[in-house]
User: What shape does this take?
Amino acid sequence: MTLSHTMRAVEISEPGGPEVLKPATHPVPVPGHGQIVIRVAYAGVNRPDALQRAGLYAPPASASPLPGLEASGTVVELGPNVTRWSIGDKVCALLPGGGYAEYVTTHEEHALPVPDGMGVKEAACLPETCFTVWSNVVMRGGLRGGERFLVHGGASGIGTTAIQIARSLGARVFTTAGTDDKARACEALGAERAFNYKTEDWAAEVKAIGGADLILDMVGGAYLPRNIRTLADDGRLVQIAFLQGAKVELNFAELMMRRLTLTGSTLRPQSDAAKARIARQVETHVWPMIAAGHFTPVMDSEFPLDQAAQAHARMESSGHTGKIVLKVGG
Assistant: This one.
């Protein structure tokens, strides 16, 4: 089909706060080998978008400079050698960047079908969080049924996803949250206990039931030594972000004496092949959870594309529960 030459987008005018996100006009991207062009219906808003906006998370050299790491919409153009998709297919996709725009390109293997019975708004919330949770909790962290799993920030997009996936796998799920209301929301999703980290000693509580076999953390800072103390013997800590800082003093003798594993990852810099492997596992294992009603994205709020700054302010206020999306197209 014939596409317009230009599109509406939101760009980062300079490093800074939410106010540096500005509406702009950009050329419609051209698909490369193995890529598809998606007409974006909704784009997910994620913490890495805010880090990029602040000048702390540069996109890969080959990626769009526009923010946006996940989106849903309709396939409208195919690059050379694309075999999986056809024009008109409804998809949600992990993106290297560029989601805050009317059109975006991504590798065909990083797109997944919109789950049956789910709208494109909800589907836009799936790729970044599902890829992150599955690759870190299961592929890297090795979570198994019956294990005790602690995820920090349980009311976030990552947290609400991790609670439901881990519970579907048969794990005992524990989490932290910043208010009693958020804690109760986490328990409604399947957490056995959710601790208000402002009023409860989550480390002591989890240690009292035997410690966590696996912890997923995006806080860092002072949480790191507390996480180590909270792990059960042979436990694993998977680090995916450092909201409170990446530098801290740790006693590594405890890792040796109790046979602990400390690991972590970031998703965006991984190769196309690595992301394709994650995509296949997500479609094989998580999409059936959605079909069975065991997992559904938790929605916080929706903003029009030109109010991306307000969406970022909402996310950085930490007042949200679940995912925030931008409505881009129809």
In short: The chain has ten helices and 15 strands. The domain at 6-126+297-327 is CATH 3.90.180.10 (Quinone Oxidoreductase; Chain A, domain 1).
